[in-house]
User: What shape does this take?
Amino acid sequence: MQRMTIRPSAKMITLSYVVIILIVIACVGLYYALFPEQSPLWLIAPALLLILPLRATIIRHLGARITLDDDRLIYEAGVMTKTTRTLDLKKVQDVRVTQRFGQRIIQTGDINVENAGETGTLLLQNVDNPQKIAHIILDAARHDPGIPVPPPVL
Assistant: This one.
């Protein structure tokens, strides 16, 4: 099997920034409509406070990935502190996809990989085409390593 790396999508982060920008524009417009003689410079501070939590999400986003190799699944998370888990593909029991309403609209979802003999699951959030990725992981887990597998089409 060809090595494949799965990363979270940036769609949710982009959508969050767009919503924040629209909120700030609406607040400034409303302020100008109610108080046309005053300057709304103080409205920039709440906008900055809305952006701060997104920075942590971006940092988590940059550090998370799953690498699918011939006979193993490698999960890496973190930027400053790196956590790596390597799972034998033969022991993968279940791959669950969870999609909240907003994720369904932008075609992303969360992938949970359950492993035999291990406690806990691996979670990769906001992945593009999660159903297709889940099928690829399960097919790789069920596949005999001696038989070549064609590369997945995403």
User: Anything to note?
Assistant: The mean pLDDT is 81. The first strand starts at residue 4 and ends at 6. The beta strands are 4-6, 65-68, 72-77, 83-88, 92-98, 108-115, 121-128.
